[in-house]
Design a protein that fits this description.
CATH topology: Jelly Rolls
Distance between the termini: 39 Å
Strand order of the largest sheet: 1-2-9-4-7
CATH superfamily: Jelly Rolls
Radius of gyration: 15 Å
Number of domains: 1
Largest sheet: 5 strands, antiparallel
Strand content: 35-45%
Number of strands: 12
Number of helices: 1
CATH class: Mainly Beta
Structural class: mainly beta
CATH architecture: Sandwich
């Protein structure tokens, strides 16, 4: 039986060793993003929680929208720029944003400052979720807990 911790300092949780699940040429665009999977540490299976740090000029993800997954972010440190279909908005510590599943509103954070950004991101793990990427030739489907990426015409990435 695996023993889960009761509580832990979030910044002591090891960062993911693989910076991105995206195929190239997209994965390398995630340089400067560090995710610490907090929910996994406690064995959470219905939703995920990450403590994410963005170095200066890094971004959280490609701008995307989920079909079935709700997402929520809470800014702890720094002033990232939220990029959505509505445009750009500078966020500050204590601000939060939510993205309803199926809304089609593409979103991401960009750190356009010389200082790190630290935030919590939460999302559910609904099987069969899909993600669309309005600015890139990419689409994804969550199958058996793994993201499968293809071009928008359905052709696989190498």
């Amino acid at each position: 039986m695996i023993t889960m911790p009761i509580a832990i300092a979030a910044e002591t949780v090891p960062a993911r060793t693989k910076p991105s699940n995206y195929p190239e040429p997209f994965a390398s665009r995630m340089a400067g993003r560090e995710k610490r999977p907090l929910g996994d540490l406690f064995g959470l299976t219905h939703f995920g929680v990450n403590l994410t740090r963005l170095a200066p000029h890094a971004m959280s993800a490609l701008r995307h929208a989920h079909s079935l997954q709700d997402e929520f972010i809470y800014i702890l440190e720094g002033h990232p720029t939220l990029h959505t279909d509505e445009g750009y908005k500078t966020l500050s510590p204590g601000m939060c944003a939510g993205f309803k599943a199926g809304s089609g509103n593409g979103h991401r954070l960009i750190n356009e400052t010389p200082h790190d950004v630290l935030y919590l991101e939460m999302g559910d793990r609904t099987p069969g979720d899909a993600a669309s990427y309005p600015d890139d030739d990419l689409q994804a489907v969550l199958l058996q807990g793994q993201w499968r990426f293809t071009h928008k015409d359905g052709a696989p990435y190498p």
